[in-house]
Amino acid sequence: MPSNHIAAPYRYIVTASSERWSFAYLHKHIDWQEEELIMFGKAVKSPRLVAFYGEQGVCYSYSGQAYYGRGIPDWLRPLFAKAYEISGQTFNTVLCNLYRNGKDYMGWHSDDEPSLGPAPKIVMYSAGATRDFCLRLKGETSQRLIQSIDDGSWLEMQAEMQVVWQHALPKRLRVTQPRVSLTFRQVIR
Ligand SMILES: O=C(O)CCC(=O)C(=O)O
Ligand SMILES: [Fe+2]
């Protein structure tokens, strides 16, 4: 663990079941895409499915891909409203991830693209299988914080999290069930 005086750079919020969007609902409505990544010069399938929604005219470059906003579908608006209620921050895009089982993962990174501004607040909603979400300070490889993320929970990542921390969703081979995460971001035009 990073030393005890370092406060976790996020707020984890579990909602009442009546306030949740279910995995089945999100899985059905989101237009999932399988993407390819270039790793060591070779095209490989991304270890998760993804989808992007953004306001018309917003362009977001992430992980070597450019995504273009084509408007927020009506069914997603209540989730944007909840993300605002939690964080007091407006968002104009959401990047969605589908981890089909515990073999799907996301490697260490910070969401620090210049288009998000110098210290962006990002809010994430999760549904489906419980997964471990890991954090470490940049430049620190052995010590980490682990937050178990449950169905129907929100994670409000504070602004400093993308500046001095990295996060990852590691493989968990004993997890057989799928999970979705929706990460709300404000792209600065
Ligand atoms: O799914 C997760 O828990 C992490 C997602 C994430 O870090 C991202 O979309 O940038
Ligand atoms: Fe991230």
UniProtKB/TrEMBL annotation:
Tell me one Pfam family matched here.
2OG-FeII_Oxy_2
Query: Fe2OG dioxygenase domain: from which residue to which, for each copy?
Result: 90-188
Write out the GO biological process terms.
DNA alkylation repair
A GO MF label = dioxygenase activity
Question: Could you tell me the superkingdom of the organism this chain comes from?
Answer: Bacteria
Question: Which InterPro entries is this protein grouped with?
Answer: AlkB-like (IPR027450), AlkB-like_sf (IPR037151), ALKBH3 (IPR032854), Oxoglu/Fe-dep_dioxygenase_dom (IPR005123)
Q: Which residues form a coiled coil?
A: none
Q: Which PANTHER family match?
A: ALPHA-KETOGLUTARATE-DEPENDENT DIOXYGENASE ALKB HOMOLOG 3 (PTHR31212)
- What protein name applies here? Alpha-ketoglutarate-dependent dioxygenase AlkB
